[in-house]
Amino acid sequence: MHYLQIKDLLSKVELSSVILDIMLGFLLFAGSLHTNWTSIKSRLKSITLFALGGVLLSTVLIAFLLYYLCSILGIQIDLLHCLIFGALISPTDPIAVLGILTKANVSKKVESTIVGESLFNDGVGVVLFVALLEIVKAGNSEMDFSLFGRLFVQEALGGLAYGMVLGFALHYLLKSIDNYETEVLLTLAFVMAGYTASFFLHISGALAMVVMGLLVGNYKRDKSMSDRTQEYVHKFWELVDVILNAVLFISIAFVMVVVDFQYLYFIVGVAAILIVLFSRVVIVYLPKYLLSKLTDLTGNEAIIVVWGGLRGGLSIALVLSLPDSPYKVILLVATYCCVVFSIIVHGLTIGKLAKHIGKKTILDNKSFCFLPK
């Protein structure tokens, strides 16, 4: 009885559209608004490497491993849908782990790397996903590289440019007004109108919101907003962030109630967890050894960055937005397994891991200091 009621409710609400078309813009703007650009700027090279190169490499790696795994299990799934899974599961979401990392006293370098990576790889992941999904909707069962390249450039570059235009426009409007209530409403209006317009412009609203949030929160904010306005704007968007994240994760629980789990799909889900973990290790450690000057991470810091790459509601939202096909349930189960494992296992252990590594580093340094000359 309750199962049918929940299923009927979800079919009417169209949860994926609510998350992708409405909530995502608010979440990304709120996250970037509270981000310190100075700390991000100091780690910009490594963040760009992980957010752009890391997502691309992770998408391809996960896709091929999943494709061959499904072939071994006798599950028919095309490589294009495997690439879509790679794109939706690659972005990290450290919102839940960020507070834990702060309490564990991890270095600012690690914290800035994880936060900056998550901000931009959400946008990159969405752009990849949208470009691949357009190829599927066009009726292609195989990868069309020319179409993908055009869509990717259009979405990514268009989103970045659009975000800068919105950010500077909002900055100058806030500068011309000295009323905190009006300024809070202005930020809300820009997110709602700007994100909605991005769909009609066929550019990445996700990247646009990230760029706009960074500009408003960091670019000459003392001139654009009074201290009182800054306090109200930040508190308002912090509250929005908390509420929407709570709604997001509650929604995920309802979605999984109506998913038809099959034994074979569960095996794929468990294997997908291992594949995603492996890809995370590769995209962190490969540049650490090949491009050590760009990443500038110690061995202990790399471990925290690997384990701090949580997957969250964005992945669930993206997989729910897939058109109905024989592959959708497989990808939904695999995504759910990865997200739940990430939130429960990574989320509950990252703090202890960070503290353990911190204590070990201190002990190693003390041992080093007392070595005989």
Q: Give the oligomer, counting copies of the same chain as homo and different chains as hetero.
A: single chain
In the CATH hierarchy, what is the architecture at level 2?
Up-down Bundle
In terms of per-residue confidence, which ranges show pLDDT below 50 for 5 or more consecutive residues? 362-373
**Averaging pLDDT over every residue, what do you get?**
80
CA distance, first residue to last residue: 76 Å
Largest sheet: none
Task: Count structural domains.
Answer: 1
Number of E-type strands: 0
Essential attributes:
373 residues; mainly alpha; Na+/H+ antiporter like fold; 83% helix; globular
How would you describe what is shown here?
The chain is mainly alpha-helical. The protein has one domain: Na+/H+ antiporter like fold (Up-down Bundle). Helices cover 83% and strands 0% of the residues. It starts with a helix and ends with a helix. Mean pLDDT is 80; it is low at 362-373.
Topology, please?
Blueprint: H1 2-13, H2 15-33, H3 37-42, H4 44-73, H5 79-89, H6 95-103, H7 108-137, H8 145-176, H9 180-201, H10 205-218, H11 221-224, H12 227-257, H13 263-290, H14 292-295, H15 299-307, H16 313-320, H17 328-369
Helix pairs in contact: 2-9, 2-10, 2-12, 2-16, 4-5, 4-7, 4-13, 5-7, 5-17, 6-17, 7-8, 7-10, 8-9, 8-10, 9-10, 9-12, 13-15, 13-17, 16-17
